[in-house]
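=== Structure Prediction Worksheet ===
Name of assembly: unnamed complex
Input type: mixed (protein and possibly other molecules)
Chain count: two
Listed entries:
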Amino acid sequence: MSDPLGKAPIVAPGHTAGSVTDKISSIVFERTPRWWWAAFGASFLLVMMLLHSLTKLLFTGVGIWGINIPVGWGFAIINLVWWIGIGHAGTLISAILLLLRQEWRTSINRFAEAMTLFAVACAGIFPLIHVGRPWLAYWLLPYPNTMELWPQFRSPLIWDVFAISTYATVSALFWYVGLIPDLATLRDRSVQRWKKMLFGAFAMGWRGSAVHWHNYEVAYLMLAALATPLVVSVHSVISFDFAVGQLPGWHATIFPPYFVAGAIFAGFAMVLTLSIPLRRLFRLEDFITLRHIQNMAKVMLATGLIVAYGYMTEIFMAFYSGNQFEEFMILNRIAGPYRLYWWALILTNVLAPQAIWLRKVRTSPALIFLVAMFVNVGMWLERYVIVVTSLSRDFLPSSWGTYSGTYWDWSLFIGTIGLFLALIFLFIRFLPMISIFEMRTILPGAKGNPE
Amino acid sequence: MSQVFAPPPDIDRLRSRAWLAAAVGIAVSAGGFFLDRGQFFRSYLVSWLFWLGIALGCYAVALLHQLSRGAWGLMIRRALGAATRTLPLLLLLFVPIVVGLSEIYVWARPEAVAADEVIQQKSWYLNRNGFLLRAALYFLIWMGPAWLLNRMSLRQDAAADDRTFRRMQGIAAPALGLYCLAATFASVDWLMSLNPHWYSSLWGVNFIGGHAVSAFAFIIPVALFLAGRKPMDEQFQPRHFHDYGKLLLAFVMLWTYFQLSQLIIIWSGNLPEEVTFYLTRTEGGWLWVSILLAVGHFALPFVLLLSRDLKRDARKLAWVAVVLLVMRWVDLYWQAAPAFAHGEGQHGLHLHWLDLSTMVGIGGLWLAVYFGELKKRPLLPAFEPYLREAVADE
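=== Predicted Assembly ===
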């Protein structure tokens, strides 16, 4: 239906089902662009750095990190929360926006979902290596054994095992099921036999019959309904890791909703970070239009405001509570040894996103990209502030300590960024980064859409 | 579409019934005031918060609609708008709370403050003047944009004007943010400070989530009433009620999520100054109220609202909404009342007839004004740009 206020359409005019299919599948079939080799090469080097650091870690132990007593949770937990949060936008875009019938999700859901998977993969590394003896990590699972070992089910850390593994499974299924019709398209368009075989095997015999489509629609909707609660539950459980403890700065009832909002905030920032350069490099401006970028920027602003509300509530409650430890925690964040992190956090996470209120910023992909970069940094700082300031200054001054990351902390963190980017580059090279068949359904003239 | 959607004349019948209820409720409550002043004010606070929650919820939902558009909101926008115009009445009804401040709040009794070090520490926030000043500010924050939006909405009856539409959207975004801020502090002032030692940073969002449930639980029966009469009978379709059902379900789940998060965190932390909130609410009769809340405010409506057929059947949906409306009162009572008995050695559950009579009195008055406001304007803004889309057949 054409918009009464003349809002821009979600696909640039003049496209047909054929041109959409050509454009998106050509990215997979054409010669690899030179910039791709440079970008992939750079991220691959970072992956090598990650492997080197992991090897060093496994041989030496977590002592190479900056963690100590009292700050036993350092970069590993900060990075885990950061990466898991980033994944949330993919699930929100693909599942919740699908249920809410937001058609603009169609051109961004595929790579947002891929982003979710890769972010969860990066996140998953950290708790495994943080346990110190990753080869015993299966002890976290409840299974009958002769050691009379059983997980402590009252601990949110155990809930995490289930929350994150469920999340990874459902996200992978959702992504793969959504890919099947497009894999069949690629199979049909492949020239070389081995490509036909490979795409054909993963397309699982998709023929596009009415029965196939019917089953597909049912499965996809059900997976969306299953994925929806995960958007809220995973990060709520992550927040419980902190909030059920008694440490000032961790024990706050606002944590679950404010962590979930922060996750969506971070995730949208990352989707923007990826989609703004990619649409330019692959000339996809017709599909990922300014309207998409603006809508995502608005979601980022709204969730950013909820996060800011969380900060404000924490500060207010600390003073309202009349509890000296709570008050000290806030003052320590603002003026203590880690004050630079806190002020940088306010700048990047609270102030920078406010620029989106301005129309001028909202209509410039370059400026939105800049804001998104601020938020990427800000959300990492947020977890740093929560983890480090609270642990380093708890109730007794005699047990205070200081913390800073070592080379290995940074190399592991930057290494996972490399892994994430390398996976993204592989994905856009070998699979359709925009859902071809869903794009066809939102074209004018399709499925009851007026011409 | 230049049709005028005049409200049905039946509204007058509802209105006169509401006036009757108001008269009876106020007369009985006035009697109660002379018999037991303390009880009167405590019952009054919960009843006032209940009706305020509906009005503020309608305001927030109207803002949400203004921002996100959508057919569901356009169909009820005038019904929501009428509720936002009751805010001046609710401000007037705030006066008895000011009068009975020291009867309601421990921190407003100088002798209690003198004996309590914790309250003394909080006196920078919990004091009479601050309380009144803040209340004035909250109402200003809510009534200002509500007044502006109501005025602009009226313009959409007269002529097609896309600028008005855009400007309303522009007001709605900051207004929604300000509403949340004001509601958060209001929840601390009016409810949380009943128990001045206790605090929970989730309290504000929980208050807001409750408003959203109240709004849909109230507006669904109103929509059912309108959908059964001319001129709206031809406009309302099952898909609209389907959407209200989904939104009601979403907000019921959100409320549950907040409640459960707060419970898990406080229960696991087990700090003496916090966990008392749940200890008093799991003792004696209160345990049953807590269970009632878990079943009536979550389990039952959750299971029922999963059904697509139920959501598309306006009459059945309205029954669920009425159950939730009752539960909204139970929730507020559950939050407020255990604190009243604090320090007097009686933590048990003591329902009082004033709880009912103040509900009827304030409710009658509020509904009478509400229906009066609903009657004043056409039920759909004739020149709203998205109207045709909203009433289109499925």
